[in-house]
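User: Sequence in, structure out. Go.
Assistant: Echoing your sequence, followed by the structure tokens.
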Amino acid sequence: MKSIIQNLRDFSRTQAEDWDESDINASLESTLKILSSQINASQCEIKLELTTIPTIWCNLGELNQVFLNLINNALQAMEHSPEKVLTLTSHANNTDILLSIEDTGEGMSEEVQKSIFDPFFTTKEIGQGTGLGLYISQKVIDDHQGKIEVKSEAGKGTKFIITLPIQHKKQLE
């Protein structure tokens, strides 16, 4: 119980205006802990390939929401897959940290990929999703001066790649 409460506090500790130096690897791990019951229920294998990366200036509460959206979508995409593997990776170069969230789910057609960041676009049944998760995620990543990309093929899974700058303009102000 104590661990669950601490994970929830870590996950939601920042407000919309809060920017600070943050450990993104710890954020990814915290998000996995928050979703642990869903992960266990889905019988999904988790592969963490997190390398040492620098802390970055960010709004961790907003980034936590992005990670939650992407991981939750991945778990849902693997619901009917025979092999359920979720892989989270992180590494850094001289200017950016690069994160990926990859699943072995049903994947997406090129047509769907063109619309996934549009507001209210969803592939879910009526009443199952708002179509705002990826739209909001893209806005958060844009606010962090980063970018989010998707690579997917129908029947072969999906990989979201997030690039975030190590030095952010708000940090320098």
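User: And one key feature?
Assistant: Helices lie at 2-11, 24-34, 36-42, 60-77, 110-113, 133-143, 169-172.
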